[in-house]
Design a protein that fits this description.
Length: 264
């Protein structure tokens, strides 16, 4: 794991990349606000986690409870006060390790937490607003078999198998939707039909795995960081929703998670 000093340096780099728009190491109030909002919501999350109602609530309900709590408190004023306290003579905040250590308030950040904050700051909102984030984190944890904080090609493969199984199922279903009971497909022994499906899954995995790595492995280092995996998983969630719009719900995410669990 990271030492507190290493974690603060890593967080400084994330903040510099994501919120210091002109790269001058100084933050005006508009640059300062998204970071302060993260800090406030982290603080509130700790308080809300003391409630069993919040702990067992689904992500969307947690978001509602968080928004409700934010409205009850005057956090806009707190943001202004925090900025005024930290700003220098030029009316800006110096973005350095000292500021980061105050911002993180003693939190010992892991690499996964830092990568998650990179996603948060990139999107311009707290990750708890995203109903998929918690599920994506769980999917990432399933895929990251060796606990390295990254997902290799071999670790990603079961996820693509799960994707392939769902796509093969839907393709075969569509191809034979109008078949009568005496059709060649329906008279085929179950083992033969399963073999056809396995071959289709293998074809999909062979074609899809390298494409997915090329698309989401932004630095081409052969592994997916949490941020890169987040983008992959988000596409899977969106695909499930889009495919479910015009028909019955497609459980693509469940299929991926089952395949990941099976591979562990």
């Amino acid at each position: 794991g990271m030492t507190p000093e290493e974690a603060n340096e890593a967080m400084l780099q994330v903040m510099s990349e994501m919120v210091d728009k002109n790269g001058d190491g100084r933050l005006d109030f508009d640059e300062f606000k998204p970071m302060m909002k993260i800090y406030i919501e982290m603080y509130l999350q700790d308080l809300l986690m003391e409630s069993e109602e919040y702990r067992v609530a689904p992500p969307k309900e947690r978001r509602r409870m968080m928004d409700e709590r934010l409205q009850e408190e005057n956090f806009d004023e707190e943001m202004v006060n925090a900025f005024d306290e930290a700003k220098g003579e030029d009316g800006k905040v110096t973005l350095d390790v000292e500021f980061v250590s105050r911002f993180t308030d003693g939190t010992v950040w892991t690499k996964e937490m830092i990568d998650a904050q990179r996603v948060v700051l990139k999107d311009g909102h707290d990750a708890t607003k995203d109903a998929d984030t918690e599920a994506i984190q769980k999917m990432f944890d399933l895929a990251d078999v060796d606990g390295s904080g990254q997902v290799s090609v071999e670790e990603l493969k079961p996820a693509i198998v799960g994707f392939g199984e769902m796509m093969a199922h839907l393709t075969i279903l569509e191809e034979h939707a109008g078949d009568d009971d005496d059709s060649e497909w329906n008279r085929m022994p179950r083992q033969e039909r399963e073999k056809v499906k396995r071959e289709e899954v293998e074809r999909i995995v062979k074609e899809t795995l390298p494409v997915m790595m090329e698309r989401f492995d932004k630095d081409a280092d052969g592994v997916l960081t949490f941020e890169e995996f987040y983008e992959f998983a988000k596409e899977m969630f969106n695909t499930e929703r889009e495919m479910s719009e015009d028909g019955p719900k497609i459980n693509l995410v469940d299929s991926i998670n089952r395949a990941l669990k099976k591979a562990r």
